[in-house]
Each structure stands twice: as structure tokens, then as C-alpha cells.
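G., the chain you wanted modeled:
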Amino acid sequence: MKLKFIAIIVLSLMFIQTGKSQKVLTTNFGHTSGIRSVALSSDGKYIASGGEDKTIKLWNIQTGQEIRSIDGCTDIISSIDFSPDGNCLVSGDWSNIVNLWDSQTWRKIRSFKGHSSRIEDVAFSPDGKYIASASGDKTIKLWNTQTGQDVRTFIGHTNGINSVAFSPNGKHIVSASYDKTIILWDTQTGQIIRTFNGHTKGVNSVTFSPNGKQVASAGADKTIRLWDTQTGQIVRVFKGHTEGINTLAFSLDGNHIASGGFDFVVKIWNVQTGKETRNLKGNIGWISSIAFCPNNKDIVISGFINETIELWNWQIGEENMKFKGYTEWVRSVDFSPDNKYTISCSSGNTIKLWNSSSKQTIRSFKGYEASITCLAFSPCGKYIASGDLDNIIRLWNRQTGQQIFNFKDYNGYASTCLAFSYDSKYIVSGSQYEGIKIWDCQTGDEIKSIHVDQFGIESVAFSPNGKYFISCDMVGKLNLWDIETGLVIKSLKERTFVNDVIFSPDGNYIINNSGADIKIRDSQTFQELMNIEGHKGSICSIDCSKDGKYIVSGSSDKTIKLWNIKNGQEIKSFIGHKQSVTTVAFSFNEKYIISGSYDGTSKIWETETGKLLATLISVKDSEDWIVTTPDGRFDGTEKGMELLYYVEGMDIIPLSSLYEKYYTPNLLARVMAGEEFEEFEVKIEDIKFRLPT
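Predicted structure as C-alpha cells:
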């Protein structure tokens, strides 16, 4: 294995303080949902991207490596912009907040609050002293970056504002709205100078030409319009897109315009002639954002659907680089009954079986074309069941990795959840629309189909005695079913949505989330016995220990909490994930908890101490993997470890000299066996680095 591949020692140690600088250990986790905006630093060295996963990512434009990730926003990030000096970054999100960040430390400098609806666009003034924010509340606000003061509010649009830009001299602001108009404003007074009318549908993007004499706009009517700022007259109309246009940008010399939208293509236009000079087709879905690089020959475009950024040499029509993540958010995790294996599936189409007791670390289960949605070990430990967006439930032999059966009959609707009966003979599964089905694991036959009026079955679970099962849906409805008759015995509606529902191991209780709370109910009467509060965000997943003493919950607040089932008291919190915790499960001996997250990792924790034991990284669309521990050890496939690197500040630094010290074969099995490793003579935080020349 090449030493240069070992640039990270451990992903679970994300931040290590070393004097004035931070040493960050990372890989390309990338965005886990659509990218809304990209911005380029003024020196052309870095790309920033903001997405629906509520994170901002900073990328090295030369290598395509992810340098940092900001996860301090509470909602979808709709727009980002670098300050002219590159020292700051501004973001606007759907929580109606504008945030200013230090681009060196990624610390939040301040937040600007005052809009009453979501932020759609943000922009720095040319001198960096002000920020303009456009909102769905029909206003633009001008903020002082030093004081945080709301300097001025621009009122005049009659519908939400999608885009805002400063003129090159900073004296004017231009905005575009759903009301089909573009307005030119005086920055100092907030007065309307003129209104540009001509678009027949909402206007999505607007920008000044580099000389400030023209404004370009684009919208849902599939056209780009070039306006004279002095007269307000249309200079030229550009036609060629077959769907609405989301974004546009001027080249730095002002001779070309780039545009992209819902037709999945980027078009380059000659400003003087109005003719299309280049048609760029990537593989990133509809185009959400475009920016020209300072060299004027490259453009950066972001695709919403597959969370990817592309760098193109537009003059020759070639793609230079993709900026993307190598991991996907973890949908489901589980332990085998003998604690020798864990399984995980991500938002992709591969299941990984992690062997925590021998040198054979991993097996991949393939055969899916659609994303896997749910996963479970059978109580007997022989089978793994999984469901996907193609409405197929598959039963796998855990030992051989071979598919035993596939169960399919949801009329094209996605299977969303599944559970084994306690004797491993049956599977109950729920779908997005169609209903609930019970399958025989021995024969592969469907033995019962129940059409329900519940929308989006979120979770199903068998009772320990095998006579009942329970279901919950997206609108908070709980139903207790008699398996023999297929009839509802008890039903109730929670006050908010329910993501997960389970029986206690003795069958006496039904446990479900209700938003951020946990409800414990009598399984016979549905009477609420206890309401447990403590999470600050919605609970995504819950599990009960096999001895019935504890509940574990994972939440959108990024934490895992362990609760005493008798009194509802919080025992401890497990903190380490960088995004929402999507799935949690106890080991059968209650010694461990495994969790999965939107951050692309699965983590194994020691229940009694709350100690993080290992982080599992499943590489996207491959059989490659990585295991790391908090003390700096790592294991993985060679290709998996090629994806790792080390960051200090804004610089990427190799740690090749530490390979022999920190590489630990068979790491997961050794950790789970309780092996005590010797402490390293030299700690990572004490090592001095010399940047590569």
C-alpha cells in the first residue's frame, strides 16, 4: 500500500486543537442531498457549496478534495457567497437567517435576523462592508457586516424575491422576483430607480455585467433577457433552453453568459450576438448554480439531483473534475444476535456486513438497482432482510451472501419498513402507499395483504408472542393489528408525526416517538404510561434493550440518548455524529449501541461508558470500506484508504510517515474483542508538519 494514501488517521477525531490552528481529519463525505448554491473564492483556489443537507462544504479546486464542512445551520441552505477578500463566507437558509462565517476557522461570526420568510439569495457588496439578502417575504435587507445592523429594507416587489446582486461599483442593487419583474435599486436610499418588465413567468436569477451597464435575467419562461441599466430597455433575448432556467452568470470579461436549469444542460451564450456557443451536458441533474472561475476559461456548476459539482473548461467543452462525496447517509444498521456481525445500508444500493469477530471484515450484498430503504437481521441470525425503492423485499443468507427469496407485490410503491417475527418465520413489511404485507420466510409466499388508509407506513413491528403487529405512519397514526384476522384492534393518532414504533421484549409496552418525545404505552389498552422528553430535534429511530431496561434514541439534533425505561430518566448522551442520527440499535447483549447518520458514518458505542469504540465508513458504490478508532488507528481496503487525507487550516497535508504506526489490521474485531492497545509514543496533535512544496 502506498504511504501517501494514509492521509487520515481517524475520521471519528474530526477536530484536534493544536495551538492557534486546528488539525482536521477528513475525507470526501460530500453533500447527502441536493446542492443549492456554489461560490468561488476570489483567488480561484476554493469552491464553497451549500445544500439541502444543511451543510456548507469547502473544496480544493485543484484536487477536488473536501477541506471542511460547516454543520451549524438549522435548515436548507439556499445561497452562499465569498467576501471579496476571501476571509468570510455568507450563507442564507430557509430558517430565515443569514449567517456570516470565518472562512479560515469556520466559526460563525454573527447571524442576521429580521426576515419573516426563508432566504433565497445572499450577496456581498464589492467592498465587503455589506450583505444583501433576498427573501420570500418580498423584501431585500442590507446588513452591516461589522455591526450586524439592519441598515435598510428594500420594499417594492409583490411576491417572493429569488435573486439579488450588487453593481460593480456598489451603488446599485438588482433583484428578481416571482412577480415576473426585475427591480434596480439605489443602495444608499433604498429607492426604486426602475422596473424591468418582460418576463412572462417568475424570474429566478439576475446579475450585473462586469462593467455594470447591463443586467441579465433568467426565469421560468425559459428565456434569458439582457437589459440596459440606463434605459431599462431589452437589449437581447436568448432562447434555447427547453425548461425553466434557475441560474446564470457573466464571464469576467463580460463577453459570455452561462445559464442552466431544469433541462439538465449548461449553455454558453455570446453576449454580442445572442447565439449559443456551447452546450455542456454533464450527469448531475438539473442545474442549481453556476460561477465563472477567475481564469475565465472554466466554470463551476452544481447539480441538484446527485449532489455533485462539476468543473468544466467551457471553451473546449470538456469536464475537468467532479467534486463529490464518497459516502452516503446511513439508512439502517443492526447487530446479529450473536454480536459477531453488524449490517448497514446507505442511501445507495449495497448492503455491507461487518464481521466484528474475525479477519474477514466485510461482505457486500448486491443485486439492487434502486436505493435500499430498510434492513434487519432475523432473530435466529441466519437471515438478512432488506427492502428498496423498487418495492422488492429480499431475503439473504447471512453466511453465504446469497439471495434466498425476493417478495414483490406493491404495484410500484416503495417498501419503507420491515420486521422479522420473533421466531424468524415471517416478515411484515410496509410500503409508501399500498399497505402492509406478511411474508413466509420458509416458502417465500405472501400470506396476508392488508390495504390501509395510512399514508406512508414508517415502521412496523411484531409482538413477541407473534399474535399482533403494530404500524405507524407519517401523520402520526398508530394501529395495532391482529395477524390472524388482519383487523385493527386498537388505533390512535399522535399529535405529531411518528417515525418509529417497537414492542418491549416482554410485549407489555409499545414504544414510539412523537416528534422529539418518546411515548411508552400499555400494549393492550394503548394508555400512555410515560412521556420522555430530552431531545431538541425530531427522533428518527428508537430501540429497546433485550433485557427491557433501556431505550436508545437517535435524533435530528445529532445526538443519541440512553434512557431508563422504568422512570424515563436520561442516563447519558452519545455525541459524535455531525448530522442527524437516522438509525440506532442495541447489540443483543446490551454491551454496544450502533448508530447511523446523514454524515455518512456508522458508529459503535460502549453502552455503559458512552465511549466511542469505532467508526465504520462504507464507500459509495463499491465494496471498499474504512474502520477507524478515536486513538488514531485505522483499517480498510487499499482503495478505501486512498480516499483519506489530512487538513490543517486550508492546507492538505499527507501523513504518510505514520502509516506503520497507525495502520491496524483486523481492527474492528480486535476492538470488539476488548483488546487494549498500547498508547502511541507520539500523539497526532504533537506532530509538526511541513507543507508539501
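Residues 667-672 form the longest helix (6 residues).

Shout if anything looks off.
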